User: Fold these one by one.
Assistant:
Number 1:
Amino acid sequence: MALALFPLVSFLFLLPTSSVSQTVGNITVGASLFAVENSSWISPSRDFAFGFHQLEHNKDLFLLAIWYNNILEKTIVWYANGDKPAPRGSKLQLTSDQGLVLNTPQGEQLWNTQSINGVVDSGVMDDSGNFMLLGSDSILWESFKNPADTILPSQSLDKGVFLSSRHSETNFTSGKFRMVLQSDGNLVLTTINLPSDHLNEHYYDFNTAGNSDQVVFNESGYLFVLRENNTKSILTSVVTGSAKDFYYRVTLDFDGLLILYSYPKASNGDASWTTVWSQPDNICIASKVTTSSGFCGFNSICSINSGGRPICECPKGYTLLDPTDQYGSCKPNFTQTCEKEPAAVEDLYDFQVLFNVDWPEADYALLEPFTEGQCRESCLQDCMCAVAIFRSGDKCWKKKLPLSNGRFDTGLDGAKALLKVSKGDVHVPPLSPDFPNQEMKKKDQDTLILVLSLLLGSSGFVNFILVAAICLGFYFIYQKKRKSTLPQNGGVVESNLRCFSYKDLVCLLPFEGGLSSMYTEVNEF
Ligand SMILES: *[C@@H]1O[C@H](CO)[C@@H](O)[C@H](O)[C@H]1NC(C)=O
Ligand SMILES: *[C@@H]1O[C@H](CO)[C@@H](O)[C@H](O)[C@H]1NC(C)=O
Ligand SMILES: *[C@@H]1O[C@H](CO)[C@@H](O)[C@H](O)[C@H]1NC(C)=O
Ligand SMILES: *[C@@H]1O[C@H](CO)[C@@H](O)[C@H](O)[C@H]1NC(C)=O
Ligand SMILES: *[C@@H]1O[C@H](CO)[C@@H](O)[C@H](O)[C@H]1NC(C)=O
Ligand SMILES: *[C@@H]1O[C@H](CO)[C@@H](O)[C@H](O)[C@H]1NC(C)=O
């Protein structure tokens, strides 16, 4: 026992001397880094560091990573062991035959630079953010050819090399989004079905099909696909500055957006990253897959928040399966059974009405021509029916669980989702003949808002025209909706509909109810 403990004890004694290690320049074979605070190798200009990043949620776990060394906001551009964080005291060593090798204190290998073909002479953290292993006359391995979720200026990705998102801002486990240069030369953004590698239908297509070789992010901050005939298919529309003055990076963010960020070098490191370009504009509408849940988890609804980022929310009566994963699936908090129910279905279930919400790909029946009343009744009496989408005035789509591809979309031809919920869980306002007017006055005073966000990625005059057109459109749609839905649903505060443009195109509607549940409150119209 004492013998077995000895190596561990002596190892712990050694730790303090090597805990703060910052080497600049060439790394020689045999050099090592330990997974402790502030342990890194710095590039000559000090712009980039390669080393161990302490995870936020567990201070005893470390990520082998590359980050900007001169800015305060820790921004990681490459990482090796997202799926296998290194326990405190793990050791990274530069070896001549295997390149970099990362071992736990117990000697278990967590990661290494695979397929080294030759003898490693030295390692270099260079000023472009590339960590390279050099042989006598060639580069044997480089982080630029083994990217994580980010591509840096002067980096290029060959066919077959992809960017893979992280699970969340601070959780570096593999996420489900990928940027892939397909064999047909088309650059796409797509999701995979974790934990497998199955690629779903892409949610964004850069339309670069042809004989394309590489995705290039050049020194000036332009992202393009380079074709065999040496022509470029430029993806990023604008770059507003010189790479001498700005750090640029293109990151496939954890929420699936591919974003070109810039950061002014001439700051004290306390500036922040600015979005220069981003795709897709509305990932909720862009993504529709047949063999997965879509952007959000099952039964969830995707929408774009006022900051232009996609969010996922469970409808009322549904709760997150994993309370810590807001992008995950939602479960109904009641079970609908096809056995004999304890009471009449009318007493057990009601409908939550959600405007402009749909779950494509979960249909099992289309009934038409049907009135909304018939649609409700049919879903109510049908023990298979989880939600009915009443659309286009006479179409009733019945859908089964799990619901997939949930999204908020104003382009659904007045779609109304009738979501079956257990009656105990919904507050149904009593109907009275004078209900609409009285309720409307009260609602007028409430200042909570519904954000109807349409991301159109345009600007200036075009944007203004679109704002005007869409405001007008909404106005009429809601006018119409009010007339057709008032009997069950109360009143629309259409006079308060306001549209404006800041980055994207956004309409605001003051509503009763919670801001966080923008759709679920729509039924309070
Ligand atoms: C670092 O390695 C490169 C390539 O082997 C070499 O040209 C350079 O002189 C080395 N620099 C230092 C400071 O040793
Ligand atoms: C690591 O660096 C930070 C900032 O330079 C410093 O505040 C902290 O004390 C250092 N930690 C250790 C263990 O050296
Ligand atoms: C990171 O996310 C993965 C996937 O959901 C999860 O299994 C893991 O526990 C998370 N890690 C931490 C430390 O939260
Ligand atoms: C280069 O190739 C692309 C497609 O592969 C084609 O559209 C384009 O016309 C070609 N350009 C030249 C100059 O050959
Ligand atoms: C990067 O690409 C853009 C667009 O083709 C070009 O204008 C610029 O000169 C390129 N920069 C470098 C350093 O090659
Ligand atoms: C179901 O969810 C609603 C809120 O969404 C909650 O008020 C209700 O208590 C839940 N019911 C059960 C049985 O968990």
Note: The radius of gyration is 27 Å.
Number 2:
Amino acid sequence: MKSKELFERAIKTMPGGVNSPVRAFGAVGGQPVFIESAKGQYIYDVSGKEYIDYVGSWGPMILGHNDERVVEAVVKQMQKGISYGAPSELEVEMAELMIDMVPSLEMVRMVNSGTEAVMSAIRAARGFTGRDKIIKFEGCYHGHADALLVKAGSGVMTAGVPDSSGVPEGCAKDTLIAEYNNIQSVECLFDKNYNEIACVIVEPVAANMGLVLPKTGFLEGLRKLCDKNGALLIFDEVITGFRLGAQGAAGYYGIKPDLSTYGKIIGGGMPVGAYGGRKDIMSVVAPLGNVYQAGTLSGNPVAMCAGITQLKILKESPEIYTHLDNLGERFRQGVRALFKKYGKKVWVSGIGSLSCIYFTENEVCDYRTAKTSDTKTFAKYFLHMLDRGNYFGPSQFEAIFISAAHTMENIDKTLGDIEAYIDVNI
Ligand SMILES: *Cc1c(COP(=O)(O)O)cnc(C)c1O
């Protein structure tokens, strides 16, 4: 009831009543739940209802909400100052930590969001190569910078608009679109735009059109094509970074990108992003080089404290990733078994703590096949699960996030609720 009242107030003062479209319930019907607090694997709405949270603030809360170690570090730093606008030791510590954890990183620059990280990495790639054109993949989301809102995933996909309005043609004309998992589509673009491609940007695991895994050889193929054509390979690890293991997707698949972008987990819940990679490339960034990129609050000490604390825990506790893998596997195998038991075909994809259930009989391997999912069925399923205290992203095309705070009992409870849904509806 309280959520309803808050939403009625919110829509009067904020577009759609939310500060980010992915929080809206347009795709599933109903109105968003307003959150009062969160702890561990649970979130609580303003009416006091508890939910097992499978969104985790869209990725950052990999340790669960309100981890005491992170909170303590933040509170301690707050008492020493919230922002300086001048260098602090924390920024050096953060850079050293990231470089120590991820083999392909030699230099990093902190920013305030994933959007900023990607936008800046692309600017650096263009500055370094002296080329304008970029290749991105249909259904991959890289934040809301103009040049990247072409055939994007996430909320753009849910809204059913392939491209955002308000993006001048000129801003998008150098963005070339390839198909995920289709290396020929990339090769073709390289051939047609000989010596003009600055970079290929990709989500090494596509987590913004549901959850689509790279097929064997796809990422290797991109690496080879980039090398052959003098283009840079950018891994957008805003979701996968420090989630698919301490080295992210690059480590998981054993591919070395030239640049990588980060966000979400590295802020521990604070607004943080970063981009980094080869030293020769990062040396084009101002004040060392001529590619301008700045930020009033970049490397903010409170945000650095949250991020450093979370990253250090991940670095020092490899068992967290084993736990996440086990939870993810239990969830996926459980869902597959349930639908099979009731003779209904769905496509369940996933890796480690990331999963997605598509209501389709097709194998999902790209944007086109992801779109074959029956979103009306998803909406029904979503509302059933919400009612029973399971909070998933309110869209078919968002990933399911599991945190280290989740337990096998949580997963089994959720599987029980899924079975109740199938039993009644199929
Ligand atoms: C979330 C996301 C972004 C954008 O990050 P923001 O912090 O929301 O600006 C970019 N790339 C990927 C892969 C993401 O998932």
Note: Residues 113-115, 118, 141-143, 203, 208, 236, 238-239, 263, 273 surround pyridoxal-5'-phosphate (CB under 6 Å).
